[in-house]
């Protein structure tokens, strides 16, 4: 038996309402360029709209002109999507609450998740959307997932409840050390100020 090895998210497809409300949310609120559309090839009565979430991958939405937005929360039963999370810069994150409130949209307010900050709100169809901002940048050549895996190991070793900023900082130091060789014979932390006393 062998795995079916995936290499990233190809796209996520959602069932939307009408075409214009879909464009108004995904491009007009979240800023995702509307890159192309075609019929739903399995149901030609529906449109299939494609948006770029910022990384060149795709969020796609099936639309139908007879469907209208339903504002109740989408189901969270087992097997259902709980929420979608999108990355934003710190500058954007700091503006999210104000920009949602300009539209009269309720939100959770900023939430500290230890390794990231998040804010939650519902789209016009009741799907929970998270805008998230990492508290760190990975070292050159590393990914956020690698930093989080290393931080997780450090958190467990310290018997801490969740990943915090100290784990992130130590994880970045450990990954940097492994990835970047040095001419120094030993690379332990130093205090050069004590020589000046």
Automatic annotation (TrEMBL):
Q: In which organism is this protein found?
A: Meinhardsimonia xiamenensis
Segments for region (Disordered): 177-197
Q: Name one GO molecular function term.
A: dioxygenase activity
Chain ranges of the VOC domain: 8-134
Signal peptide bounds = none
List keywords of the entry alphabetically.
Answer: Dioxygenase, Oxidoreductase
**In this record, what's one Pfam family?**
Glyoxalase
Its name, as the record gives it, is: Catechol 2,3-dioxygenase
Q: Which InterPro entries match?
A: Extradiol_RC_dioxygenase (IPR052537), Glyas_Bleomycin-R_OHBP_Dase (IPR029068), Glyas_Fos-R_dOase_dom (IPR004360), VOC_core (IPR037523)
Q: Does the keyword Disulfide bond apply?
A: no
Instruction: Tell me the organism's taxonomic lineage.
Output: Bacteria, Pseudomonadati, Pseudomonadota, Alphaproteobacteria, Rhodobacterales
Q: Which PANTHER family match?
A: RING-CLEAVING DIOXYGENASE MHQA-RELATED (PTHR36110:SF4), RING-CLEAVING DIOXYGENASE MHQE-RELATED (PTHR36110)
């Amino acid at each position: 038996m062998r795995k079916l090895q995936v290499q990233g998210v190809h796209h996520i497809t959602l069932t939307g309402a009408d075409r214009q409300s879909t464009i108004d949310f995904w491009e007009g609120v979240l800023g995702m360029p509307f890159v192309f559309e075609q019929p739903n090839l399995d149901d030609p009565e529906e449109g299939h709209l494609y948006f770029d979430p910022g990384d060149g991958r795709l969020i796609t939405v099936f639309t139908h002109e007879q469907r209208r937005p339903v504002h109740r929360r989408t189901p969270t039963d087992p097997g259902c999507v709980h929420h979608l999370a999108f990355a934003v810069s710190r500058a954007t994150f700091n503006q999210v609450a104000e920009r949602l409130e300009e539209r009269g949209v309720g939100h959770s307010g900023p939430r500290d998740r230890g390794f990231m900050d998040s804010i939650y709100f519902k789209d016009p169809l009741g799907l929970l959307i998270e805008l998230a901002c990492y508290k760190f940048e990975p070292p050159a050549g590393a990914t956020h997932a690698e930093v989080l895996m290393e931080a997780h190991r450090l958190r467990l070793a310290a018997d801490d409840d969740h990943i915090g900023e100290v784990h992130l900082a130590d994880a970045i130091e450990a990954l940097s050390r492994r990835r970047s060789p040095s001419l120094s014979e030993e690379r332990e932390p130093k205090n050069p100020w004590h020589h000046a006393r």
